[in-house]
Amino acid sequence: MIPVCRLADLPRGEAYRLESDPPVAVFHTDDGEVFAIDDTCTHQDASLSDGWLEGCEVECPLHASRFDLRTGSVDAPPARLPVRTHQVLVEDGMIYLALSEAPPNLPPCGVARLCGGAA
Amino acid sequence: MTTTSLPESLIATLPGDYYTDPDIFRLEQEHIFESMWFCVARSSDLDKPGAFRTVDVGRESILVTRARDKSVRAFFNVCRHRGARLCTEESGEVRRAFQCPYHAWTYDLDGRLVAAPNLTKMPDIGRTEYGLVNVHVREWLGYVWVCVSDDPPSFEEEVVGDVVARLGDVEAIERYGIADLEVGKRIVYDVKANWKLIIENFMECYHCATIHPELTEVLPEFADGYAAQYYVGHGAEFGEEIKGFTIDGSEGLDPIPTVSEDQDRRYYAITVRPQVFINLVPDHVIFHRMYPVAADRTIVECDWLYLKDVVESGKDVSRSVELFHRVNVQDFDACERCQPAMSSRLYAKGGVLVPSEHHIGGFHDWVQARLGTRQPQ
């Protein structure tokens, strides 16, 4: 399990971006649940931790596709593929993460090479 | 240069090209509208977070909105990325953010850059540094005023100062509780005339007996041609038979209870330079904002404000609105009649002001001083 951050440092309604490869977004919902999904929208390179959290869904800040934090499924285009979900454990006030072993659904990323990121 | 001597009763107006020349209008945009406090909206037009309006202030498009903390914010309506106009609608409401329709740079209601494609791969882009650029903003009298200058003049000296110069003190306008009144009617006029013709018209009453028969009936002293804007602290008194400030002199609406006894049955008028004109009567307030569009075109937005109860109970304000609406139409017709002649060869050096209009000369001096075009005497 990977340690993420202290639960107390992640207020309800907010997200934490873990700089893993690919990055992971950890959400603390208004109801007090903690979920983790891939941070990158499957349509275009946008950070879902910058998105709009409502209930158990996050809306991509760029084109408004909504991802279910529990299943990773997407409600409507332009994103078509789900994001991966990751297993979360909260123990002694610390959030831990077990990364999914499934292949991620990352957006086409020619730009990443130009930006110096992973292709 | 030849000097024309005028009879003592007369002083000169501005030359005709001040009302037609796009270069002069450009100077006015820079040295007046972009340098001063400019009224852009009624606070209640931005009634909840995300409600917005876009307004041209001089050559700039300005976006005004209300943030989550209920404060009013104003920004240059320009995406920080490639300069696309962010909001193209005149008014509307966003749920959470303003998004550029070009590359989807996304800004929250505080103007902070919250998302953009590939943004996380460019961690050196400051979210505030590349957020929307703030414009100075104030709320007063229930209206939103902005100043697009980096170094705004004192709001108290300029805006409040113009009100005090006319009424004598600021308490006189505060007694009308304008921020707490409600818009009972709004009319927008598209006037094919230079903004200064409209201001000058508002400043004098030499025309009142000729073009405003209804107004002169309600305010008989207007027949002598001296406007409410000639004196300090003077309100024109209603005629003896007049019950209220209405088209036929019939009873008005519920009076504003905090208006003082000496303000009762009187009409006050104030010009707040460069583009606001306010009328005060015991039961309502009429609040004009002028939006100069071009040398020969001005949009005038006019609100009739009443006590909340009056508006909410659906009382009939039509006779009340009709009086000044008719005055507006009469005035703007007159301004539109002048505009074409401003480019006549005959008017190249301008016209003349009679004694009851001489205070307009002060407005002309002010315009020339701001533009730096004052002719050596």
List the helices and strands and how they pair.
The complex is a heterodimer of chains A (119) and B (377).
Chain A (H helix, E strand, L loop, with lengths): L1 E5 L7 E5 L5 E5 L5 E5 L13 E3 L2 E3 L6 E3 L16 E7 L2 E5 L11 H6 L4
Antiparallel strand pairs in A: 1-9, 2-3, 3-4, 4-8, 5-6, 6-7, 8-9
Chain B lengths: L10 E2 L9 H12 L4 E5 L8 E7 L2 E7 L5 E5 L14 E3 L3 E3 L6 E3 L4 E3 L20 E5 L2 E5 L7 H13 L3 H4 L7 E10 L3 H9 L4 H4 L1 H6 L17 E2 L28 E7 L3 E6 L2 E11 L2 E10 L1 H5 L5 H21 L13 E2 L5 H13 L6
Antiparallel strand pairs in B: 1-18, 2-11, 3-4, 3-6, 4-5, 7-8, 8-9, 10-11, 12-17, 13-14, 14-15, 15-16, 16-17
Helix pairs in contact in B: 4-8
Could you explain how this protein is built, in words?
The complex is a heterodimer of chains A (119) and B (377). Chain A is mainly β. Chain A has one helix and nine strands, in the order E-E-E-E-E-E-E-E-E-H. Chain A has a single domain (2-113), classed as Rieske [2Fe-2S] iron-sulphur domain (Rieske Iron-sulfur Protein), CATH 2.102.10. Mean pLDDT of chain A is 89; it is low at 111-119. Chain B has two domains: 37-147, Rieske Iron-sulfur Protein (3-layer Sandwich); 169-371, Naphthalene 1,2-dioxygenase Alpha Subunit, Chain A, domain 1 (Alpha-Beta Complex). Chain B starts with 10 loop residues before the first strand and ends in a 6-residue tail after the last helix. Chain A binds chain B through residues 17, 23, 39, 44-47, 50-52, 61-63, 111-112, 115-117, and chain B through 96-97, 99, 104, 106, 114-122. Chain B: Residues 37-146 form the Rieske domain.
- The quaternary organization reads as heterodimer
Low-confidence stretches of chain B: none
Instruction: Tell me the β content of chain B.
Output: 25-35%
Approximate shape of chain A: globular
Largest sheet of chain B: 6 strands, antiparallel
Most extensive chain interface and residues per partner: A-B, 18 and 14 residues
According to CATH, what is the class of the largest domain in chain B? Alpha Beta
Second-tier CATH architecture of the largest domain in chain B: Alpha-Beta Complex
Strand content of chain A: 25-35%
| Number of contiguous helices of chain B | 9
Strand order of the largest sheet of chain B: 12-17-16-15-14-13
Query: How many helices of chain A?
Result: 1
- Determine the mean pLDDT of chain A: 89
Domain count of chain B, please report it.
2
Q: Which superfamily, in CATH terms, is the homologous superfamily of chain A?
A: Rieske [2Fe-2S] iron-sulphur domain
CATH topology of chain A: Rieske Iron-sulfur Protein
CATH architecture title of chain A? 3-layer Sandwich
Note the run of SSEs of chain B as H and E. EHEEEEEEEEEEHHEHHHEEEEEHHEH
